[in-house]
């Protein structure tokens, strides 16, 4: 039996772009005593809107979704609806995605292979103010933060050293031609690096990358 919050069932939203998985998970969680699913979302934008409208206790969030990915959706939910907990449930276990989710404000991160009991336990813990990360992920997160990096050095671990240099100059407002001259690279190499940065940051254009980078301390 799930411990209710405020004498009522925990209110959930399930966000996933695969309808069979999304509906199946919603049905499974809705069948658990003490949980109720108040909405489902097929993309990150719908998840943000449902968080704003329904103010659920927890959103179970996929990462790879159209319109708005789960990381950016989590970031917006944390800013707009801080009382809503986010549990990321995804196939991805690479460090870049894990750390991006944590920085965005996710308080739980599980892989889609997790069993029902583990998912329910994570939802309950996050709803009650805790944080849950699978054992292997928790160890990697602990090791990363134990190393103590701060500032821009700690941000965007998925980027290579060269990509971080390029991003720093992009955030400073430099054009590709200026970046090429500064780093003694060909314009084509700079274009490739910028493209890789946009992909890895899961942003659609240069302006979004600049916002993300400046928030992390780049471009100063």
UniProtKB/TrEMBL annotation:
Classification via InterPro entries: CheY-like_superfamily (IPR011006), NreC/VraR/RcsB-like_REC (IPR058245), Sig_transdc_resp-reg_C-effctor (IPR016032), Sig_transdc_resp-reg_receiver (IPR001789), Tscrpt_reg_LuxR_C (IPR000792), WalR-like (IPR039420)
Keywords from the named record: DNA-binding, Phosphoprotein, Transcription, Transcription regulation
SMART domains per UniProt: HTH_LUXR, REC
Residues with PTM 4-aspartylphosphate: 62
Keyword Phosphoprotein recorded: yes
Pfam assignment, any one: Response_reg
Highest taxon in the source lineage: Bacteria
Example of a GO MF term: DNA binding
Domain Response regulatory: 11-127
Residue ranges constituting the HTH luxR-type domain according to the UniProt record: 152-217
Gene Ontology process terms (BP): phosphorelay signal transduction system; regulation of DNA-templated transcription
Protein name as annotated: Two component transcriptional regulator, LuxR family
Species of provenance: Geodermatophilus ruber
């Amino acid at each position: 039996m799930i411990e209710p919050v405020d004498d009522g069932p925990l209110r959930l939203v399930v966000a996933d772009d695969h309808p069979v998985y999304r509906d199946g998970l919603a049905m499974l969680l809705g069948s658990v005593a003490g949980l109720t699913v108040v909405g489902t979302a097929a993309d990150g934008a719908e998840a943000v809107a449902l968080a704003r409208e329904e103010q659920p206790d927890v959103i179970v969030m996929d990462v790879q979704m159209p319109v708005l990915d789960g990381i950016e959706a989590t970031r917006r939910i944390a800013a707009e609806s801080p009382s809503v907990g986010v549990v990321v449930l995804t196939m991805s276990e690479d460090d870049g995605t894990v750390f991006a989710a944590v920085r965005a404000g996710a308080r739980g991160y599980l892989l889609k292979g997790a069993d029902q009991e583990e998912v329910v336990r994570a939802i309950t813990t996050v709803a009650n103010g805790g944080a849950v990360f699978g054992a292997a992920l928790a160890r990697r997160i602990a090791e990363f933060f134990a190393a103590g990096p701060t500032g821009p050095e700690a941000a965007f671990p998925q980027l290579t050293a060269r990509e971080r240099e390029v991003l720093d100059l992009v955030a400073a407002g430099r054009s590709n031609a200026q970046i090429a001259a500064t780093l003694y690279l060909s314009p084509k190499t700079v274009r490739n690096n910028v493209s890789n940065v946009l992909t890895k940051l899961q942003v659609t254009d240069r302006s979004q990358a600049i916002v993300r980078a400046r928030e992390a301390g780049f471009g100063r």
